């Protein structure tokens, strides 16, 4: 890092800080058993996540008006429930399932690592999730954020520059005083283009044990760590 120290560290959240796939599969499997509703919940979760970027891209490209992520998730869920032929779900069930994104569990190192970093740095999520989603997730998972940078604060989704630069604007600091931390090389590359510092840590099991991704740094990021605890160690927290 050549002696540079960030003022704030913002984190990609889905997959980097919380285990979206494992959390949703476990919750939906339990829900299905309780309600006696048979479905391939694992396939549903994977398809739901696969719809994530295309739905946001329609907003980013102006093909759809600004729509918060909770509502994009619900639209995708409705389509997938029909596609998978899942029967017996009430409107209340669909609301509950959709809010599963508010109840994601953290990776084991996330809370202790973030707690250490919080002592020295301003920390928060910079996520495509909306503020309500991210705030309720933080409460559920015990994530000790100082600030929640939801996409609805900016009216933009990553990788639009308004998101990365919006953090610096809201905190009244220069972009180079903000560090983006993520398990996704593409997110870091976009942050770097906006002048942010970068930190990578791998989450090779984000998409399950048989689909290895996000397992190695692809550029010379300012920090490459094993996990968030190691990131805290490297940053002196």
Protein architecture, described:
This protein has 11 helices and 7 strands. By secondary structure, the protein is of the alpha/beta class. Helix 10 (185-193) links the parallel strand 5 (178-182) and strand 6. The strands form 2 sheets. It has a 5-stranded parallel beta sheet, with helices on both faces. The mean pLDDT is 95. Helix 1 crosses helix 2 and helix 6 packs parallel to helix 11. The protein has 2 domains: 8-19 and 106-234, Rossmann fold (3-Layer(aba) Sandwich), CATH 3.40.50.1000; 20-103, Putative phosphatase, domain 2 (DNA polymerase, domain 1). The protein is globular, with a radius of gyration of 18 Å.
Structural class: alpha/beta
Superfamily at the CATH H level of the largest domain? Answer: HAD superfamily/HAD-like
Order of helices and strands: EEHHHHHEHEHHHEHEEH
Major β-sheet profile: 5 strands, parallel
| Rg for CA atoms | 18 Å
The CATH class label of the largest domain is Alpha Beta
Number of beta-strand segments? 7
CATH topology of the largest domain: Rossmann fold
Strand content: 5-15%
Number of domains: 2
Low-confidence stretches: none
